[in-house]
Amino acid sequence: MSSTLSNFFTGHMSKFLSIFFIVAILINPWLSRTAKASSSSAELDSARVDRYIHKMMKRLRIPGLSLGIVKGGRILYLQGYGTADDHDRRMTPKTPVMLGQSGKSLTAIAVMQLAEQGKLDLKAPVQRYLPWFRTEGEQASGQVTVMHLLHQTSGISTADGLSSLIYDHKRLFDHLKSMNPYALRTPPGSLYQDSKLNYDLLGGIVQEVSGESYADYVRNHIFLPLNMKNSFASLNEAKRAGLAGGYQPILGDMTPTPWRNHPGGAPSGSIASSAEDLSQYLIAQFNARALKTPTLISNQGLSLLHKQAAPMGYGKFYAMGWVLQNDAMYIQGNTENSYSYLKVRGDYGYVVLANSMDPLNISGYDQIANQLDAMVQDGRSPSYHGLPSYSLSYGLIAAAFLLVIIMMARTVYNLFKWAHSSPLPASRLAWHGTFAVLLNLLLPIAVLVLCPKWLGPWPAALAYMPGIAHALLILSILLLCLGAAKAVVLALSSRKVGRRVFRQPSKASSTSA
Fold it and tell me: 0.90 cut: is pTM over it?
């Protein structure tokens, strides 16, 4: 608690507020789990929090957001902001939102539960539980362990994880088997690489060892024990429970887009939950030691789950589903059109869920939980320094695309002009030929080849960055087509120049004769 808030609760005012909130609790015991918990919100300036969230939502064009703050084994604050979908349904702390990579921590908990029951060994090779698992190097097939998957050091690359996005519409085992043999880009245990396939494989192990489907397992052994009533590992179930609609910026316009079903990717993040449920989840994980009341796994299991393991660079370490940095733990996730961020520092935990995703301004989304933490625990004023500008980001991209379109239009104009005019001089032919190679050959080929490596295969890029990815793909193809047309016109013009040069000496010789 900040010194400002501490001074506020002194003297007679503190006594008055204590009596007031005791009465409020006796009258309305359920308020501790509503949008604004009266007894708990007294420990923070909820109006200040609300002002900050509203300002960030406006800056980042976020349609709907839900927030949860926990402290010392209890929910301190819950609130929903904005709209849940394009029907103006109100966003609440109970509204389910798709989590993305934040769901990996649930899979890690499931694996740890089975390990504590003696049903699996974390150091055992994956093949013990999934006999069909193969790598491209047969010898390495037996070297990848369950622990490697948990720590994301199996050798399966981030790029291969992105590529699997176009296959995880299948059922879990069908999806995992379709990826056989798995390519190991580095030796198992040697390097951290964030790959969704690691946690999809862990989900397959949970399903195989428990005898339950992955969705049934997390419902029966995680959601139900924690009373997480608005959490689902099935898209259809989440929709029936009022899943928030997703939004994506299409060339700067925040637009509602449909959900895509990824049943094979549930263990790596295709899970829906609410701010209220995830607040309970944080309490179960991070306050069990202090309260001596472990709910999901033992305290020893929690210690192992949160132990730093794989260096990520920049002072970060990966544990099991969580990132450790300085004195905090967090995990950030997103789908095509939603965002989640869970953070724990000290006795406080934060849940931020948004029903939109903006890959160009995701650093701004990440600032929300971090700034809230600084406000609540350190008493700092929120800082907007370095916050990405939504308008500037998409304005620059629109300007770049407009410049390319103008250059393409000029090329079309020149093609018609050259086709009906006298041959171009050799120097201009050389200049236009060089420019065509750079703009109409090298640039589009670079885009078509490199974008899948950075953004995932084109189907995934088109899903995660609609508008921008579509423009890149269409403009690249058009540039190649114009380049081909330009090459034909320049070749014909070159032949005309050659004929003219060839005929000039014969004219001169006939005159002298």
Answer: no
Provide the 3-class DSSP secondary structure of residue 211.
coil
Q: Whole-angstrom Cα distance, residue 262 to residue 343?
A: 25
Instruction: Report pLDDT digits (tens) over 230-256.
Output: 999 999 999 999 999 999 999 889 999
pLDDT for 505 beyond 60: no
Report residue 335 as tokens. Answer: 């789908």
Question: What token pair was written down for 436?
Answer: 């065509």
Q: Which two tokens stand for residue 38?
A: 């009266």
Cα–Cα–Cα angle for 102, 106, 112, nearest 5°? 135
Backbone angles phi, psi at 437, to 5 degrees: -65, -45
Terminal alpha carbon distance of the chain: 106
Residue 70 has pLDDT above 60, yes or no: yes
CA distance 71 to 347: 5
Contact criterion met (CB below 8 Å) for 153 and 228 = no
As a whole number of angstroms, the distance between CA 307 and CA 322 comes to 9
Residue entry with tokens 């709209």: 83
Rounded CA separation 205/120 (Å): 9
Q: Are strands 316-318 and 339-345 parallel, antiparallel or unpaired?
A: unpaired
Stretch (H or E) spanning 247: strand 246-250
Tokens encoding 229: 């009533």
DSSP string for 320-366: SS-EEETTEEEEEEE-SS-EEEEEEETTEEEEEEESB--GGGHHHHH
Extract the tokens encoding 482. 């114009």
Buried b (16+ CB within 10 A) or exposed e, 440-456: bbebbeebbeebbeebb
340, 99 Cβ separation under 8 angstroms = yes
Percent of the chain with pLDDT over 70: 86
d(CA 422, CA 499): 12
Q: What is the pLDDT of residues 261-297, one digit of tens each?
A: 999 999 999 999 999 999 999 998 765 555 555 578 9
| Residue 113 DSSP one-character state | H
**Number of Cα atoms under 13 Å in the Cβ half of residue 4:** 10
For residue 105, the Cα-to-chain-centroid distance in whole angstroms is: 15
